[in-house]
Amino acid sequence: MNSNKVNMRVRLGLLIVLVLAVSAAVSAAVSGPTIHLDLIGRYETGVFAEGTAEIVAFDAGSARLFVINADAGRVDVLDLSDPATPALLSPIDLPEFSGGVNSVAVHDGLVVVAAENEEKTEPGQAVFLDTDGTLLNAVTVGALPDMVTFTPDGRYVLVANEGEPNDDYDVDPEGSVSIIDLSGGVANLTQAHVQTASFVKFNNRPIDPLIRIFGPNATVAQDLEPEYIAIAADSRTAWVTLQENNALAIIDIANANVVALRALGLKDHSQPGSGLDASDRDEAINIANWPVYGMVMPDAIAAFTSRGQQYLITANEGDARDYDGYAEETRVKDLDLDPTAFPNANDLQEDEAIGRLNVTTAQGDVDGDGDFDALWSYGARSFSIWNRQGKLVFDSGDQFEQTIATLLPDEFNADSEENDTFDNRSDNKGPEPEGVVVGVVNGRTYAFIGLERIGGIMVYDVTNASSPHFVQYINTRDFSGDAEAGTAGDLAPEGLTFVPASDSPTGQPLLIVGYEVSGSVAIFSVEN
């Protein structure tokens, strides 16, 4: 091997830090009492694949559920006093915020909605309402506010301003997190009570090379795109997923200061327990090890406490940038692979191997010679648990695909918009875990993870954060129905919320899920 290739391999080894641990096999055995989900109610909009039921937030005082209806640009309000028969009340129309609504949260009867500008690259707004839909106040936040949440103590509202570029990629606003101080009351809220946690200070600092900064002509602050927020139990610290960047931001809330950026690393799919089904053209379930690195790229994140320690849990979805002005995604078979790194390139690039797998062109050419020395795919097809500093504690490996292969083999890696699509998503993020929420039942902590494509909810006992246990996979999709006609049940879980027994109209904990494609909301009772 020549010296250039030796140096290249050394650089590759330094760059690719394999942070994801191989997890134990799926086990349904859980020490102590466990739970199961029962579907007890459903609300249906009757609108297919238009985002009519995305994010959900529950107010215990009024027993009302607030549902983001992105298609109509409004918030639908459901009466959930009897969760078995949810009823639509008067929807909240927000015509003065015409860019559309993306997220909703509620705390002690105060509702906040994230509304984007009609021009998505311009600043959006956080809109405050009471549970009857009366407008109380509004403040300006950053570009494309994509997620909003309250701190547990109710003092602050945090908004993840994604700051996506326009389609030509010649306008690229900075990503940021707006921090709104409500200590003076919502009626007295002014723009002076809004601070911005900015990433500008990282523009001229060295950052971890595994944090993806790759947009055309973008600064670090422009390239970072906040997606989802989790907040510590003490309301002092926030953790923000930067999905396209495969990173995590840690924020000091009171000072609106980004204290750290953490790369979330790569998953080595060549390792035992971390396989994937990479082909949608082999007409089979084939979860195997391949020379591919999966970018974690989480969407949703949640915080929970285990044995007195704070932990984070992420749903490792994956997401590619795809604009007219810049697109990073391609298939393995369309790449020129380095012959030293991939001596069996011809075999790998067959459709039945990994030729169909979607990967990025933004990374992988380590030595800059025009061919690819490593393959980076989107998402990790798993959930992960991290400590409060962003260090990996646990990853579920290939458990999701293995579980689906066992329980729903005829529908393995199906698409969300059409039935009879066996293996359709294997080349593109597989089951695609997107949403996650945690809840405590009888002293044990459970994680509920929504799978966007095949659908359904994975339930894990995460009481021991370093050794979670699989509890249940429930899928309320009807694979014999017609998705577009509305007879296929619940499709593409997007937003999840957990209602503890103390706040539930039934006295039993509830899990409420909004489904983006079917336009439905499902209410599950969490039973012992």
Helix-strand blueprint:
Blueprint: H1 3-15, E1 36-44, E2 56-59, E3 64-69, E4 74-79, E5 87-88, E6 92-93, E7 101-107, E8 110-115, E9 123-130, E10 135-143, E11 145-150, E12 156-161, E13 176-181, E14 194-198, H2 220-223, E15 226-231, E16 237-242, E17 247-252, E18 257-263, E19 266-268, E20 293-295, E21 301-306, E22 309-315, E23 329-331, H3 345-348, E24 358-360, E25 376-378, E26 383-387, E27 392-395, H4 399-407, E28 433-441, E29 444-451, E30 457-461, E31 469-474, E32 493-499, E33 510-515, E34 520-527
Parallel strand pairs: 20-25
Antiparallel strand pairs: 1-34, 2-3, 3-4, 4-5, 4-6, 7-8, 8-9, 9-10, 11-12, 12-13, 13-14, 15-16, 16-17, 17-18, 19-20, 21-22, 22-26, 23-24, 26-27, 28-29, 29-30, 30-31, 32-33, 33-34
Task: Report on this structure.
This protein has a single domain, classed as YVTN repeat-like/Quinoprotein amine dehydrogenase (Methylamine Dehydrogenase, Chain H). The longest helix is centred in the N-terminal third of the chain and has 13 residues. Strand 7 and strand 8 form a beta hairpin. Helix content is 6%, strand content 37%. The N terminus is likely disordered. With 528 residues, it is mainly beta. The chain is built from 4 helices and 34 strands. Strands 2, 3, 4, 5 and 6 form a 5-stranded antiparallel beta sheet that branches. A 4-stranded antiparallel beta sheet has the order 1-34-33-32, with no helix packed on it.
